[in-house]
Amino acid sequence: MREHAGVPAAKGEIQQVRQIEEQEAMDLAADWADISQGLRKDLGHQLYTQWIKPIQLGSFCKETGTLDLFLPTEFSANWVQDRFHDRLSLAWKIARGEVRHVRIQVHPGRRKLSDIDLRGQDGFGHRAANDSPGLAMGSIGEHGFTSSVGLDPSLTFAAFVTGTTNVLAFNAAERMAKTETPQFSPLYLKAATGQGKTHLLHAIGHSYLQAHPRARIFYCSAERFMIEFVQALRSNEMMEFKTRLRGFDLLLVDDIQFIIGKASAQEELLYTIDALLAEGKRLVFAADRAPQALDGVEPRLLSRLSMGLVADIQPADIELRRSILESKLTRFAPLSVPGDVIEFLARTINRNVRELVGGLNKLIAYAQLTGQEVSLQLAEEQLTDILSANRRRITIDEIQRTVCQFYRVDRSEMSSKRRARAVVRPRQVAMYLAKVLTPRSYPEIGRKFGGRDHSTVIHAVRLIEDLRKRDADMDGDVRSLLRQLES
Questions:
Q1: CATH code of the domain occupying 318-389
Q2: What residue stretches are annotated with the Chromosomal replication initiator DnaA C-terminal domain (predicted)?
């Protein structure tokens, strides 16, 4: 009886231990969430996303006070260890006093280069594009090079919306992918985050493969290139690495700004560029800054990167942002998105195209999941974070000054009682812009225009809205003023 009675008791103890372990894991996760949020604010979005976000919590040893943090690659683990170890240790000691040591290492599940079977493949873990049509091959372990069949199928030239700010880069990218030999190589695409440079890289790969079905295409990030270089170096496989890399017909390298440090890796990329150019191969690089602004890159490599064409992609203007949103709406038919919502998003989310499209997707997804209609009010309620991050604070004083300069009227006319058409219309335009570009209420706007009643402001806003639909000159004036104020 005692033995039988002891069985449930033992099970209860095991269950209790498991509950304690689960609670400790949840507490650790909660602490890490708080620490991560603080690091995101301190480091900024780009550094946080690149280095801190991939960190996974490991085990915590109470006896030694050691907490393990895992990263997916040796390169990223070394980088975080060198640059963020002290900051991470301090943050954990503040959050949880029992943590005395923070150990940063590669995730134990990572596969090494020597563990991969490269037989029948192109040497980077993929078959050549012509060897197995339609078969999507994997990468080397968790972090190998991406082959041509790994290109994002949605990122094509047909899906890229052009405007005055990106037409040069688009035309250069199209020419790089054509059958005839390009006039320039390498092509260097320079753009801030989320403006379309990665899209163009993938589009070049797709188009080139259509024109050259048996071509070998190599697409990766600069960081990934460095990871594979270091692994090949440590595995004594440098000759194989060089031979495979130089066997590609088109080289596409993204985020070249991360090719910092590791002089030997930079030197190998330099020699690869020279070898491919000598054989008439095509090279395309993308970065968030001009070649001359890259930090920690040796002069010879900078010279090679800038010897072809450096095509700059400027931030999308209001017309391009509007066109991008309208092009995306075809995916959501028959869902209706009012024109004032599109105009609101295009004007307000102006930092980069990725946020703009993400805002539209989030708004439509919310409307579909909740059964609500897409409206301006819904957009303002559900996109608070995106909108607040993008809004530049434009003052009514700034609007009045800009409108007066545009129409060549004296600033005092914004508050005067004069009813002459030459001053009334600019005043009404300024009221309209104040309502569109600022969060001020109708009464607040009225007070800034000589203490006018809110009904006068409402009349002005509705009048200008109506005139924009009927009068091309008025619409052109307002568009020009919006560009000036939002630039």
A1: 1.10.8.60
A2: 395-464
